[in-house]
Every structure is written in structure tokens, then in C-alpha cells.
Amino acid sequence: MAIYKTLRTKPKPNRSPILFLVLSILAIAFSAFFPLPFPSMHCDSCEGLGHQESSLRCALEEALFLQRTLVMPSRMCINPIHNKKGILHHSSNATSEEMWAANSCAMDSLYDLDLMSNTVPVILDNSKMWYRVLSTSMKLGARGVAHVAGVSRIALRDNSHYSNLLLINRTASPLSW
């Protein structure tokens, strides 16, 4: 004969929805004082390639927000000067072109530009398309290009002066390209 035993579950304490709400609000308020760090905010800790990667993510987001084409550099510097954890060693015998070739790599070997272009149009700064855009913007003068360091991205998107420009340089230096 089998003896059946009923299992008794421990009664769960009633948790108040008000207590849950108060704890949630406190957690949100606390997190406002200690935001998650964005990698580019801490250049000393991310340095080198991590900083370049972070800058690329920001540039992609800007291009997506502004619905513009992103012009990427054709090569990325991988010099150990910029990356203290780098394993490359440089020779003082090389010319500057040889050093650049040894301390940089092609962006299209690092990133799938076709896949990126599905979200944001991307061209490299050594492409024929970029040279056409650059020569056209130079012919247009002030109507073709603007260096807008410090201008908010909302102003860039909403102001018709900026939306009609062919090129917008968001970097701090007009010499960046």
C-alpha cells in the first residue's frame, strides 16, 4: 500500500507593490548619480585602438541621426605609441611612408563596409566617390562645406542651412580631411 503525502509549501511573504515601486525609484535615482561610463569619456583608460573604436561608433551614430553618409579614413593607425599594450616595434631606419604602412592597416580589412552601409552609407576617404564629393564641395565654396565643431546635432538636423550642405565636418579640426 502506498502512502501519499501532501507537500506543504512555505507561505511566501506578501510583497507590497508600493515597496517594489519605492525600491525601483531609489535604484533609478541612485543610477543617475553614477552613470555608466562611455568609453571615450575616459581616454586614459581606453587609449589607442579602443578609443578609435569608440570614436567610430560615435561617428556612425551621428551619421545615422543626421541621415548622412559617413566618410571613414581608409587606414587606421595601430602604432604602439597610441596603444601602450601594442606589440609592434618600430625601427628608426624606415621612411615615414614605410612607417605608416607598417603602423596602420586598411579599414576595409577590419570592417565589413558593405554590411555597415546597410544601416548608414559609408565611403572611404580614398575612394573615387569621396574625391568627387570633395571636388564638388570645393567648387561650391561656403555653400558646399561647413566645419561645425561645437554645433549640436539637433541644430545640424533641423537647421536648413546645414541640411543643404554637401559636406559637414564634425571634427574639431578643419584639417582632418
Structure report:
The chain is mainly alpha-helical. It has 2 domains: 48-124, no CATH class; 127-177, no CATH class. The protein has helices at residues 17-33, 43-66, 96-102, 107-110, 113-117, 128-140, 153-158, 160-163; strands at 70-72, 75-77, 104-106, 122-124, 145-147, 167-169. A two-stranded parallel sheet has the order 1-4. Strands 2-3 form a two-stranded antiparallel sheet. The N and C termini lie far apart (89 Å).
How does the SSE layout of this entry go?
Blueprint: H1 17-33, H2 43-66, E1 70-72, E2 75-77, H3 96-102, E3 104-106, H4 107-110, H5 113-117, E4 122-124, H6 128-140, E5 145-147, H7 153-158, H8 160-163, E6 167-169
Parallel strand pairs: 1-4, 5-6
Antiparallel strand pairs: 2-3
List keywords for this structure.
single chain, about 180 residues, mainly alpha, 2 domains, two-stranded parallel ribbon, two-stranded antiparallel ribbon, 6 strands, about 45% helix, about 10% strand, elongated
